[in-house]
């Protein structure tokens, strides 16, 4: 598990059910490992999601947080105001 992201292996799919990695837009190959985001359950290639996490903490497709967040209010970081 990588920061709440589960590792799975792609299973065989019907020809019309082929899934693509939304990051690199290549086919998810049966038998190859993928990473599944915990909140939206979307799957991406391991290397793709690892690189994506260096630039964003949200899903590329639906904008859900990649990792579980605290149950507190949704507050954005605000820089201190200048006086």
UniProtKB/TrEMBL annotation:
Single GO term (MF): zinc ion binding
Taxonomic superkingdom: Eukaryota
SUPFAM superfamilies, sorted: RING/U-box
Keyword set includes Zinc-finger: yes
Keywords: Metal-binding, Zinc, Zinc-finger
Residue span, RING-type domain: 21-63
Coiled-coil regions listed: none
Keyword Zinc-finger found: yes
Name this protein carries in UniProt: RING-type domain-containing protein
The species this protein was found in: Oryza barthii
Taxonomy of the source species: Eukaryota, Viridiplantae, Streptophyta, Embryophyta, Tracheophyta
